[in-house]
Amino acid sequence: MGGGDLALHTREQLPRTSANRVFAVVYLFAIFAVLYHHFLALLHSTSIVSLLFLLADAVLAFMWATAQAFRMCPTRRRVFIEHLQHIAKESDYPGLDVFICTADPYKEPPISVVNTALSVMAYDYPAEKLSVYVSDDGGSKLTLFAFMEAARFAAHWLPYCRRNKIEERCPEAYFGSNPSSWFPGADEIKLTYENMKARVETVIRRGTISRDYIKSKQELEAFSRWSDGFTSQNHPPVIQVLLECGTDEDVTGHTMPNLVYLSRGKNINLPHNFKAGALNALLRVSATMTNAPVILTLDSDMYSNDPQTPLRALCYLLDPSLDPKLAYVQFPQIFNGINKNDIYGGEATHVFQIHPAGMDGLTGPIYLGTGGFFWRKVFFGGQLESSELKQGMKAIRSREVLASAHDVAQCNFESQTQWGTKMGFRYGSLVEDMYTSYMLQCEGWKSIFCHPKRPAFLGNSPTNLHDFLNQTRRWSVGLFEVAFCKYSPITYGTRNINLLSGLCFAYYSFWPIWSIPVTIYAFLPQLALLNHVSVFPKVNSFWFFVYVFCFLGAYGQDHLEFISSGGTIPRWWNNQRIWMVRGLSSFSFGTVDYILKCIGISTFGFNVTSKAVEEEQSKRYKKGMLEFGVASPLFLPLTLTAIINLVSFLSGIAQVLFRQGSIEGLLLQILLAGFGMVNCWPIYDAMVLRADEGKMPLKITLVSIVLAYPLYLASSVAF
Prior knowledge:
Blueprint: E1 9-13, H1 17-44, H2 48-67, E2 75-79, E3 96-102, H3 110-121, E4 130-136, H4 141-164, H5 171-175, H6 186-206, H7 217-223, E5 238-243, E6 258-263, H8 274-289, E7 294-299, E8 303-304, H9 309-317, E9 326-330, E10 334-335, H10 349-360, E11 372-375, H11 399-408, H12 432-442, E12 446-449, E13 457-459, H13 465-483, H14 489-496, H15 499-509, H16 515-530, H17 542-564, H18 569-584, H19 586-598, H20 615-622, H21 636-657, H22 663-679, H23 681-689, H24 698-718
Parallel strand pairs: 3-4, 3-7, 4-6, 9-12, 10-13
Antiparallel strand pairs: 1-2, 5-6, 7-11, 8-13, 9-11
Helix pairs in contact: 1-2, 1-17, 2-15, 2-16, 3-4, 4-6, 8-11, 13-19, 14-15, 16-18, 16-21, 16-22, 16-24, 18-19, 21-22, 21-24
């Protein structure tokens, strides 16, 4: 159904495809020229400095080569929901199980998770075919309380959305919009919502649930499972059916979707495999209860922004003309609340929009960890469900169903099984989303990227630099786990999927090695400049223009891709700055963490990225100020780079002015130091000018100054 008057969808290549291919050929010759220049230099003299520059450019060449796979067949799609009725009646829609994962009520505020759940419960989808499962991997009764409150509020919210056909079905977002767009009855529902929100936030603040908030004996019994020995890492499974379709009705008498709370069993002596383990528990529990053929996974803060999103996914999933090995439809991650110029590059335009469109022209995009509509069967080797999980038509509150659900949620259920290897989400990497989609594609499955004009989902991006860098540091460990496993994309993937798709996965898995060229070029030319040594070709040399072309060509293409995807120049500038910040800081630390993990010195675990934001921090973020505030080692490479580039730039200018060096030989180094200095302006601001709580801690500045001098002394020996 890719064409015709009643097509469910269309597909076309992006106009820049031909230009990408031509430029790739031209740029490839420039890369060969640079590498040839390095080998010529090595023939004359071999030093640690020349070898480091060769290493930096070799890594840049490798990453450029893998990135070209995204640019060979970029694709744009469009769906036609109005044609879906010609393929399937509403009564024939497949069941949809929605999985929402949360892990810490203090880092991921329950009211945010509640809003996510309510937004998908209000989908334009038959209520009897929709079930929402909430995985609470923190095992907190506070989260369960929040969802008990959500279940009561849903009885008012769902009919309001249905009656008025509103698009914004996340209560927090809707009531934060212009009241002039509200419908009759909104004020009363807003008051109900505000009261619910106040109770939930009060409980979180106090850390305990007041007896006055417990409405029934059943609720009291549910909370009694949190005994003295119950901890977040050691407890039996807790499953609570909060709403059951066919039994629970809203205020207008319509049935409501199923809503189920799950906290899987955990034991401190058994591995729990982080988010992948939580998703697999959801797979099993949902199979015993509703066993819907289609599954949607969502992060705790990624609420629905379009009530027709499931219908968009069905335009692909139900199309008989598409490959029967279609595994999932991936929607992009789009973030709200990002400040005007996106100072942290939190929008991640390349990862969440540009690259998926590039992979869509191959075998399909990676799974982004949220916003993916899967066929359940892909997690069971192509069968609809595992035989031991198959459920009947019994009520999900029945003893038999609950007993079965508790059994498959036990902490030891996966022992001696294929869960995490051949079944479910895959174990072996902290980036379970990328690894799972990679292994599925190696098994022959395909995926599709659906990027509608109205974002399907909206979420929150870190507004704190330390949280942002820690998140990327954790990803780095997980990506290396994929890069160097026995199924490495560069070897196994290029053979078992295809060359271009394998290179796409290789680009992601080797992402942290950006730290090598970024660190070398942030320090080595600048230290050489301080020692009056020229390391780049002179201005009147042919090789000078080759280096300039390589720099401007890569930056220019990146800029054009970013702008053509709807970005702005200030956002692009901040995006390239944060790329360098990651390379110097989180990628470097992540590389060290991975090495230490491999030799058994440390075991890097999963830390939940905080979604809670302080008011003053939020104000600084909206003003476009980078948030430092804590004396973290992650900031040391940044301040050290800022100091070295500043001193080097001033030294280079002085050498030229006082004729201690030739401008022809030092120009590239001076420009590079100046470029680094301009990028480091927010760091200088935080080190010297700012007086707020988000400034650079004095300890970090002093330590960097102390480290800069021995680094200079060491360079004087090397040069």
